[in-house]
């Protein structure tokens, strides 16, 4: 397999409990924040959650985002080495994490990315952010909502509550609008 | 009690604060998770938080504060240990009640960190004779509890206590059940300290966690993030019919002899899951071979490995049991 190529469950893996989500994009896409929203939503629902944001040394690279494992067995391996759901909004994110999918794992990708693998689910994440929030800066909330809708990792209600708590008052209307739009986008994709 | 998501390093700092620590020093407060609310709260209570600029300066300041009677905490990075070693040795020699937080270094480069490592374990063991008591929590919640207990122990005097978190656990955010503010320790501001009996003493906390060891024929021994991987491997090994078990080391130095001896009585094979060059294997093998039963002890150490996934430990357990 070439470096960065996307592969599903090719390694000899054992089942991890819970759902593993990885978010990877450019720093400007705010996927770091999306990880915080998803992790806090899981905490609100009293789910077991482990969240590894790309901070510190990891933040110096060309990929920003994070990894969240929700609903794992207490005391077991908390890190995401094989994602059940990989959401990418940049080529670098795809190159770095594309090779690490769990068996049956799915890739949700920004539709404008080039050379997406056949099984990737291409969605207009950035366009949805611009159309609903008036700025591409809320693509993080569109992404968090799409992941929620397509994985069921947390409930919509918990996601909305977490976002409302974490968003600064000034950005709340646009952020929550983007969240609603992301939920609709995820629903439409599921119906399709 | 409140549940909140904390990085492992933050959990250490808050645990120490809620156990009564009133003096914090680090080469970088932000890197040690000691900035922001923790710094503000400590200062409000009459304590001090020192951004010392270097590990040696941080340890020196913390040591001085401890000698003057403060419950004192120094945070160090794994790479800082060589420069801090003489001061740690002095704290041990003079039995200064200091809480030392050590965060392991990442493997790989700063720009592309590849994974955690547990390379500091030997140095922490040989830094002085006797070695400082060293605990290795495996979750943020446990980091909080152990740091709180370590600060309580420091309040009562005694020798320094080290708490070691590998880089993965230090960066990971997990739920932590923290004490509410009224249960915390506003030590120097005049408000009452909680009764010592209300907090778990370090000596009362377990030195090791035994997971499915009772009938195990093959054992994994691990600490920190490697122990979390080993637990997954043991569960899957059991599902596949292998009588595997796990001894998770909570206290690394001195090693928990009783738990090791009891488990080694029954198991024929031991797999040491560690993220270094065999630093745990060597003292464990010596200990396990000191009795009449001498189980085969194998290390999964791999120089330069950035991760030890459950699959690799599972393969070793199944291989040893075959």
Helix percentage of chain A: 25-40%
* Low-confidence sequence ranges of chain A: 1-5
Anisotropy-based shape of chain A: globular
Task: Name the CATH class of chain A.
Answer: Alpha Beta
Give the neighbour order of strands across the main sheet of chain A.
2-3-1-4-5-6
Task: Kindly describe this structure.
The complex is a heterodimer of chains A (192) and B (322). With 192 residues, chain A is α/β, with parallel strands linked by helices. Chain A has a single domain, classed as Pyruvate-ferredoxin oxidoreductase, PFOR, domain III (Pyruvate-ferredoxin Oxidoreductase, domain 3, 3-Layer(aba) Sandwich). Chain A is 39% helix and 20% strand. Chain A has a six-stranded mixed beta sheet, sandwiched between helices. The longest helix of chain A has 20 residues, at 172-191. The model of chain A is unreliable at 1-5 (pLDDT under 50). Chain B is of the alpha/beta class and 322 residues long. Chain B folds into two domains: 2-204, Rossmann fold, CATH 3.40.50.970; 208-321, Rossmann fold, CATH 3.40.50. Chain B is 37% helix and 23% strand. Chain B has eleven helices and 16 strands. The longest helix of chain B has 16 residues, at 140-155. Chain B is globular, with a radius of gyration of 19 Å. The termini of chain B are far apart. The interface between A and B is medium-sized, with 29 and 31 residues.
